[in-house]
Specification:
The longest helix is centred in the middle third of the chain and has 13 residues. The chain is built from five helices and nine strands; from the N terminus they run H-E-E-E-H-E-H-E-E-E-E-H-H-E. It has one domain: archaeoglobus fulgidus dsm 4304 fold (2-Layer Sandwich). Helix 2 runs parallel beside helix 3. Strands 1, 2, 3, 4, 5, 6, 7, 8 and 9 form a nine-stranded mixed β-sheet that branches. The C terminus is likely disordered. The protein is globular. The chain is α+β, with helices and mostly antiparallel strands.
Length: 231
């Protein structure tokens, strides 16, 4: 139990600032055999959501397992506090995994966050696992002009600090915003995300979790109103 979830937005912000000092930034493990992707989908008309976690072997990227948990959000949407809304559901999904992953890729930010404590960092502390943020949109920071070719990247800078990279995961497709969560750092995070991107913009583990959470494919039959979560 890292902390209570019954916090006001002001208390949650203060907690983020305090817990950010507990985040450890270091290279990812040299030996990785199982990578997880995590995402949360939600209903636009109902206060219900689906948390999904998909695991893949690494480096072969063979699908291993998919788990889901459906429940209600217990925290309102507040910019910069997405983790307080989604992590309680994600923790329930992770408890259902048969095998613990070596690294978790999250559809959200890590250190590329105003308080250096995005969803990936927060989840990493709860799970005590290496985590990497891989977001589809930018929350903070600036970067140089991006090249159009797959694999090209630029440093993402915020307040004079390199908080991540902007990575072109597919040629002529919008880039991803990659930042370390916990027990990770920028370069090893970038390399892992790039190795996990095959034919699509998203890394395979996150892509499968995203589709499962949004109710679109892969052996699931949730309500048709479920839609992908924003990052």
């Amino acid at each position: 139990m890292l902390h209570s979830w019954n916090l006001s937005p002001q208390e949650a912000i203060a907690l983020q600032k305090r817990l950010a000092s507990s985040v450890v930034l270091k290279p990812l493990p040299e030996e990785i055999t199982l990578v997880a992707g995590a995402d949360v989908g939600y209903s636009r008309r109902h206060d219900r959501a689906v948390a999904a976690v998909a695991t893949y072997t690494y480096p072969g990227l063979a699908f291993r397992e998919l788990v889901r948990f459906q429940g209600k959000f217990s925290y309102p949407y507040v910019p910069g506090l997405l983790s307080f809304r989604e992590i309680p559901l994600l923790l329930q999904a992770f408890e259902r995994l048969r095998e613990e992953p070596d690294v978790v890729l999250c559809d959200g930010q890590g250190t590329a966050h105003p308080r250096r404590f995005g969803l990936a960092s927060h989840l990493g502390l709860w799970l005590n696992l290496p985590t990497v943020g891989c977001a589809k949109t930018r929350l903070v920071g600036t970067h140089g002009r991006m090249g159009p070719i797959k694999g090209q990247y630029r440093s993402l800078l915020h307040r004079g600090e390199r908080v991540g990279v902007v990575l072109r995961s597919r040629t002529d497709v919008k880039p991803l915003y990659v930042s370390p969560g916990h027990l990770a750092e920028v370069e090893s995070s970038r390399r892992l995300v790039m190795r996990c991107c095959l034919k699509y913009r998203l890394p395979e583990p996150i892509r499968r979790a995203h589709l499962a959470a949004s109710g679109r494919r892969y052996e699931i039959d949730p309500p048709s109103c479920l839609a992908p979560s924003s990052t």
